[in-house]
Specification:
The protein is an alpha+beta fold. The protein has 17 helices and 15 strands. Helices cover 42% and strands 17% of the residues. Helix 8 runs antiparallel to helix 14.
């Protein structure tokens, strides 16, 4: 958290140079965004993280339609950030190789049919379009495959069919009344979003939180991680007709989300976390219930994992399919599990552990092959690690997780920027809140990890059969609504 008066604000050209220097030095770009200021200019902010952890803020100012040298040709991980910046503010990243709308907001609304799809030409090249309307209840997205026979040369993913206006809605209510809206930004990551929001409000208001509150929030987040990884494993098993896995993973997920419901009344943790604390502690009876649920879960989970990993049909279907190598993953800026499955050792619970994960560390896990097999195995391993962490915390007898009455936060500090990062099951959920001179929010920036990983899915399909798309898609398991804010 930084007072904005303490942040050096450069002109746009100097700001780009400073960003380029940081990225050339190996810093990781966490987020990059812009907002209008009262004078009609655009304030641009980049948040970078060095190899030793810790965040650094680089800020600049530009006029509408002003151009700046694009970072993308040298640092491809900036490509989506610059596209979003151009779409939302009108600043032009000159030399960007892929300058296309992200969400079709503002001037681009109602122009989805003008989308400039990439073209692959050749006598036997054909295109296959899927969506935007899909079977079942998933949200809209269009996938266009450029194929030679059954082999995919390129996949282009067009999202932006939903105009929810989340970031504008977040400025229409008082800061302390945003929890229910934040929880619904991406429904399968309600806890990760709620905790990030709560932490930001608490930092801006100077509210002190007891370690027991952090522990309850950590239990909620790891339960969410286990449940959502299980949903992904269910889909992967079902997509290849491995029925033992599909049925068992689904049953085990139900056990986890029902345990969550017994604590807070919601299977997805909605209403559990609020600024200043949590609405529901974990009583001794609930603690024992959770421990019993986790112990029974771990036994069945190990058995079905052995079945899944030992099956020749599973190995044949997943190994070598949808590969994203480590160099490509770094260049594309993949985050979360998708990046770790390609050998990138980045987990915000380790890089930015905060008080909770410093007290009770979690092990950073990676795989090296970068294929569907690696993403499958890493989900299993991360569930095992979350179960170990949950068991260790819940078995600590001196912790009182029941008496965690929330403290009501006070007014927010004026002229302050707070960047909150929480490692959800997909990757880092980033929320940036900025206040004005009167302490009211003037900007609320939301970033789901899916925003950065959709292009990784497109890259993974190159050279694969079009029939490999369902398992590649599910192995990434990205969020449409996390993109279409």
């Amino acid at each position: 958290m930084m007072q904005t008066r303490e942040i050096v604000t450069d002109d746009l050209a100097t700001w780009v140079d400073r960003c380029a220097q940081a990225l050339d030095a190996g810093d990781r770009l966490i987020t990059l965004f812009g907002r209008p200021d009262a004078g009609g200019d655009t304030v641009v902010t980049a948040v970078v993280m060095g190899g030793e952890g810790g965040l650094r803020i680089l800020r600049g100012r530009g006029r509408r339609l002003e151009s700046f040298p694009s970072l993308t040709p040298r640092h491809p991980a900036a490509q989506m950030f610059e596209r979003e910046l151009w779409e939302q503010t009108g600043l032009i990243p000159a030399g960007h190789p892929w300058l296309k709308p992200v969400r079709y907001e503002g001037e681009h609304q109602q122009h989805m049919t003008d989308y400039p799809f990439f073209k692959v030409r050749g006598q036997e090249i054909h295109e296959v379009g899927v969506g935007p309307i899909h079977a079942s209840v998933i949200e809209p997205g269009h996938f266009r495959f450029m194929c030679h026979g059954e082999q995919v040369h390129h996949l282009e993913i067009q999202l932006g069919y939903q105009h929810r206006g989340v970031e504008a809605l977040l400025l229409r209510r008082p800061p302390l009344a945003l929890a229910s809206l934040v929880e619904s930004i991406a429904g399968d990551s309600s806890i990760a979003y709620a905790w990030g929001y709560c932490a930001a409000v608490e930092a801006l208001s100077g509210t002190r939180i007891r370690i027991e509150t952090d522990l309850v929030r950590g239990v909620a987040l790891e339960l969410e991680r286990v449940a959502m990884h299980l949903a992904s494993l269910t889909g992967l098993a079902t997509d290849i007709a491995f029925l033992q896995g599909g049925a068992t993973y689904g049953r085990l997920r139900t056990a986890i989300i029902n345990a969550c419901m017994r604590i807070c009344g919601s299977r997805f943790g909605r209403g559990w976390l609020r600024p200043g604390g949590v609405r529901y502690g974990i009583s001794e009876e609930q603690r024992q219930d959770l421990l019993a649920t986790i112990a029974a879960f771990a036994k069945d989970f190990a058995e079905v994992n052995d079945l899944m990993l030992d099956a020749r049909s599973v190995r044949s279907r997943f190994r070598g399919v949808g590969v994203v190598g480590s160099e490509a993953a770094r260049d594309l800026g993949l985050v979360g599990l998708a990046g770790r499955a390609s050998g990138m050792a980045v987990d915000m619970r380790v890089s930015l552990p905060g008080r909770l994960y410093t007290r009770d560390p979690i092990t950073l896990l990676t795989e090296e092959s970068g294929d569907c097999w690696a993403r499958l195995k890493l989900r299993m391993r991360e569930i095992d690690e979350s179960v170990r962490w949950l068991t260790r915390v819940l078995e600590t007898p001196e912790l009182d997780l029941a008496s965690v009455a929330p403290a009501l936060p006070g007014p927010l500090s004026p002229d302050t920027l707070c960047v909150s990062v929480r490692e959800g099951f997909r990757g880092p959920v980033v929320q940036s809140l900025e206040t004005g001179p009167d302490g009211r929010l003037i900007h609320y920036k939301v970033q789901d990890p899916s925003l950065l990983n959709w292009f990784g899915l497109a890259f993974a399909l190159r050279g694969n059969e079009i029939s490999d798309f369902p398992i590649c898609n599910k192995s990434f398991d990205l969020s449409y609504c996390g993109n279409d804010l």
